[in-house]
What does this fold into?
Amino acid sequence: MNETHDVSLESWVGSATTRETDFPIQNLPFGVFRHRGSRETPHIGVAIGEEILDLARCAERGLMVSLPEAVGEACSVPNLNALMALPGAQRRELRAVISGILRMGSAQHREAADLLVAQSDADLDLPVRVGDYTDFYASIDHATNVGSMLRPDNPLLPNYKWVPIGYHGRASSIVVSGSPVVRPAGQTKAAEAARPTFGPSAMLDYEAEVGFYVAGSNALGEPVRIANAWDRLFGISLLNDWSARDIQAWEYQPLGPFLAKNFTTTVSPWVVTSEALEPFRVSRAARPAVDPEPLPYLSSEEDRERGGISMTVEVFLSSSRMRDEGIAALRLSRSELASLYWTPAQMLTHHTSNGCNLAPGDLLGSGTISGPENDARGCLLELTWRGRDPVTLPTGEQRKFLADGDEVIMRGRCHADGAVSIGLGECRGTIFPSRS
Ligand code: MN
It folds into this structure.
């Protein structure tokens, strides 16, 4: 940790000093924005309270002259990929400079005040050009719940406690929070039916996840050791892995998820850096004594002691009727990122362990974040036990799965003793009717 994490640090941006803000000066997440409604080339910005500091214009105005030229250049492109390609030391220098600009008493206060844009006057873009996207399955509670619906006597497959399970997702359909989610159509087959039919999914679900963005690159054939994995983590955002359970049930064997998952994945617009997460690193979730120790390539003392991230993920649902009647969104679940069976470093290390190359801006999903409690289940499949126990909304409406017009809102917040709490902002998506 360093002076950018200091709890006594305050910003001259008033909205960044409230207790509730997701974006105090200790956070400084990166995003990509344009002025609302404009068609200008997007700029990289940093969220501070309810404002955005325009980094591209900071570079233009010479507020970053103390940094290597490559850093200013990386701030002047319309996505975060070039920042993600910078060496870790330069990313840390950039954070120190931004923290210096925004802190109370800064000599650059006047110049920078001009370069603030209210978040309410901005449209946020997809922050990263994601080259490759992989989704993991790192919550043992999620894996156990889903497994026990399919195999009541043997919910966890024998590989689960040895291998961080994942599948290759699709990057082209990743969208930013607020983008519409069109109900997918596909093949489904009821258990008792002789043949499948094609039509709109009737079991559309969300999955509450966190996305890890990759920094730097490793050459093809060159695995990343677990000791170096945290440095390859640029930062995190919220991720909603929308899933069509009826399509999934029919298509998933033997090669895993395909069209049930790749129609849309929503990410939140702000990327909270791994450096901002330093105060919230906690020990890896304890494993029962009967569980195997991870194989040596997935094990290090640092990962055991500081491989987890203390963050609460909440999911809210609002139906169109609730919005019409002015009723607040209903919280469906609340779960903990630190409860995952596999850490981000273990997932990244495993991903490259065969020599697979990861590039700046690649995205790794955590998998649905569920906990052992009933209200810590991170998708409707688990919450309603595949529709057996519907959720009742404040209007009296019931949900087994998502209806057209439903909006799903995810929030994430990090807490630790002796640290200023930071948040990830929101990840929203509303379901639109199928076009089939
Ligand atoms: Mn998933």
Q: What stands out?
A: The mean pLDDT is 97.
